């Protein structure tokens, strides 16, 4: 990806960013001259974050946070602001995945998915938006949805519902924040080749009677562009939405899925 300093002077807060898509987006933002606060649930930075910190010691900080807890969100925003000043961009990425047939899906899975994917997403966004308004920051929020939020799936009811909620909250927040000059958009990835797919593939193998790895191969072949996406494919879209190049774009959820969903 070409780098041109598009995010120079901006402070980007990224949740769920210890690896996969979040870490790739952080790397792309740093390459565009941003200062980044990476947040994840681990008490210590992952190896990937540590390597990135070694390359960007002055512009990258790690903060432990559990977005399912209101106090943790408040502490995260406070610590991020103390480190690099007011937040200009939120990459709202923390999420978990689970699946089960509708007749077997249980309350514990429902609660965990909605606590993190919906409640955590909304209240992290709210905390950052409050700060942006208080400081007069004409910022950008990017909420991570999924192609699963565009349609139901028989084995993935809870997860699909959480990601549909992300799209809806993105639209509502964008309308509420437009008078403040704050843009709120989403990204709906398709099938992205991250470590999480090992877990996803194993669950499909269990419920669909497949061999391990079979589902992953099949979904990649089914993409119109012929492959699964990479975290870097999402990073390009995220940098664009964070930058002034997207200054007239708000209330949208951008499909980055190789053509899986057409809208």
From TrEMBL:
User: What keywords were assigned to this record?
Assistant: NAD, Oxidoreductase
The record's annotation in InterPro entries points to: KR_dom, NAD(P)-bd_dom_sf, Sc_DH/Rdtase_CS, SDR_fam
Q: Which Pfam families match?
A: adh_short_C2
**Does the keyword field hold Oxidoreductase?**
yes
Organism per entry = Ideonella azotifigens
Q: Into which family does the record put it?
A: Belongs to the short-chain dehydrogenases/reductases (SDR) family.
Which domain of life does the protein's organism represent?
A: Bacteria
Which NCBIfam families does UniProt cross-reference here? PRK07067.1, PRK07231.1
User: What range(s) does the Ketoreductase domain occupy?
Assistant: 10-190
Keyword check for tRNA processing, yes or no.
no
Q: PROSITE patterns from the entry? A: ADH_SHORT, PROKAR_LIPOPROTEIN
Protein known as = L-iditol 2-dehydrogenase
